[in-house]
Amino acid sequence: MDMPAPHAVSDQCRKMNGILTIIGDKWTVMIVMVLIERPRRFNDMKRTIGGISQQMLTRTLKALERDGMVSRTVYPTVPPQVEYALTDLGHALSVPLRALGDWARDHVDEIESNRLRYDLARDTGFDGKVRAVG
């Protein structure tokens, strides 16, 4: 089997890194999870997500729209109403995000216990392992 040229691998990695940076962002994850339920207006999302600034919500929605994961529909009302919804690509992204969320939920206690044990060992200099002397 032929190996790809090194520049082709780095080009592909660079492209994937840009995508993974967006979809791995905590605000992207939260927006996608909120939009799974139904299309929403901006302020509805802001209230539902909590803790996200207007600027960050706007920035993240624009990035998701640019990538084709979110659609933006403007209704001709006074004032104009704007609604955001997941596209087919956005719904496809929700599948691995849900799986990742399920994994995190299933392992949160174990991870918290490991963090506590690690922090305690770091703070005390004792890792809990008995070693032979001599």
> Strand pairing plus helix content: what structural class?
mainly alpha
By DSSP, the count of extended strands is 3
Which residue ranges are poorly predicted, with pLDDT under 50 across at least 5 consecutive positions?
Answer: none
The CATH architecture is Orthogonal Bundle
> H/E element string?
HHEHHEEH
**Mind telling me the CATH class?**
Mainly Alpha
Mean of all residue-level pLDDT scores: 89
Taking all Cα atoms into account, the compactness measure Rg is 22 Å
Number of domains: 1
**Span of the ends, CA to CA:** 53 Å
CATH topology (level 3) name:
Arc Repressor Mutant, subunit A
| Lateral strand order in the biggest sheet | 1-3-2
Strand content: 5-15%
What coarse outline follows from CA principal-axis ratios? extended
* SS summary, helix count: 5
- What proportion of the residues is helical, as a percent range? 55-70%
Described by strand count, sense and barrel closure, the largest sheet is:
3 strands, antiparallel
